[in-house]
Amino acid sequence: MKALLVYPEIPDTFWSFKHILKFIRKKAAHVPLGLITIASMLPEDWELKLVDMNVEQLTDEQITWADLVLIGAMVIQKESVKEVVARSKAADKTVIAGGPLFPSMWTEFPGVDHFVLNEAEMTMPIFLKDFIAGKAQRVYDTDKKPDITKTPLPRWELIKMDLYASMSIQYSRGCPFDCEFCDIVNLNGRRPRVKSSEQMIREFEVLYNLGWRGRLFVVDDNFIGNRVKVKATLRELTKWQQEKEYPFSLFTEASVNLAQDEELMQLMTSAGFDSVFLGLETPAEESLKECGKHQNTSIDLLEAVKTIQGHGMEVMGGFIIGFDNDPPNIFDKQIKFIQNSGVVKAMIGLLNAIPGTRLHQRLQSEGRLTEGCTGDNCDGSLNFIPKMDAQTLRDGYQAVLNYIYSPKEYYARVLQFLDNYKPTRRKRIDKLEIRAFFRSILYLGILDKGMSKIYYWKLLIKAFLFHRKSFGEAVSSAIFGYHFRKLLQK
Question: Please, what is the angle between helix 407-420 and helix 390-404, to 10°?
Answer without folding.
Answer: 70
